[in-house]
Design goal:
Layout: H1 5-14, H2 16-29, E1 36-37, H3 39-55, H4 59-64, H5 68-75, E2 79-86, H6 89-99, H7 101-107, E3 114-121, E4 129-136
Helix pairs in contact: 1-2
Length: 137
């Protein structure tokens, strides 16, 4: 679960892209298969993340999934979601993999073949971000 130095340095530079790299790095370690990025899941995740920060709470990300334009994306095939909050992508990812069994289990589920992710920064708190990760098998 430790991030190799070269990956850690890359992740610090690229922010959002680091999220995808970290997830696929973990899946590679555990031989779960590399996930393909899905634009429609990225868009759904972005809508959910923006809803969370605009409402000021993480539960709002889940209620965003109820809106009609996301229902087709999220309901057409079973989609698993991970919603996390923290100060950096790397910190959130490391914490999820070490301390959050549900997030870890979702990230490492071998049946998942594609995923989408998004981040949003809380207004007025430049260090606090929400990450929404959507996985589909």
């Amino acid at each position: 679960m430790s991030t190799p130095t070269h990956l850690a340095e890359y992740c610090q530079c690229w922010g959002f892209s680091a999220n995808h790299l970290l997830v696929n790095h973990e899946r590679n370690i555990y031989r779960c298969g590399v996930l393909q990025r899905c634009r429609s899941l990225d868009q759904a995740a972005q809508r959910m993340a923006q809803n969370a920060v605009s409402k000021g709470n993480i539960a709002a990300a889940k209620t965003a999934a109820q809106c009609p334009e996301l229902q087709n994306t999220l309901k057409s095939q079973k989609v698993s979601q991970v919603i996390l909050v923290g100060n950096s992508i790397q910190e959130i990812h490391t914490s999820a993999m070490k301390h959050n069994r549900a997030a870890r289990r979702t990230i490492l589920t071998p049946k998942h073949k594609e995923f989408g992710m998004a981040t949003a920064r809380y207004p007025g708190d430049s260090n606090k971000i929400v990450i929404v990760q959507l996985f589909r098998g």
